[in-house]
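Here is one chain, start to finish.
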Amino acid sequence: MTINQDVCAKKGRGRPKLFDRETALDKALELFWAHGYEATSLADLVAATGAKAPTLYAEFENKEGLFRAAMDRYIEKFAEQRKAALACPERTVAQGIENYFRSTAACFTDRTKPAGCFFICTSTALSAASGEVAEMLRTRHNAQEATLLEFLQQRQQQGEIARATDTDGVAKYLSCVLQGMSVRAREGASREELEGIIDTVMRLWPTLVMPA
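Its structure:
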């Protein structure tokens, strides 16, 4: 080895690894998803992401900032994908809802990541000290219901749903079913079990959209 090669090798060995923000977020997301916000410590996050604490603080400011970024990552990777199932204008309103629910069931029971909904799983067992985190999660819960309501109202304006139908009530009901599916998935329910729940919802669909 020449002197120049020797110097380059030593420099290479001492060079710090570049921080991969997306990989770190994916690791943090899984950790928060599996254990919740309060049960996940900074030491856990350091071990999972492979980044040192000063690096995480420089990038996300604090644990809450990292959680907020992980929440946005979940929306980007999973929530928006499920929401897209509603967007196809060629499908009937019932087909859109069924697609959305079946896409959600697949996500909740995907064995490659924690079961259930990230927002619902991480909102349990929060103390009063985590008020801002609880509010963030509550906002996301409301956004899911708002997405369903917007879809139903749009199809109502197009004449697919009777004008006398209580779309707000239907959206609330569907949101509650989704939360229940998340809890069941967290308890170990299979995709087939969640599909059975969806089958029941779709059999009830004509009654759900019946004019008040």
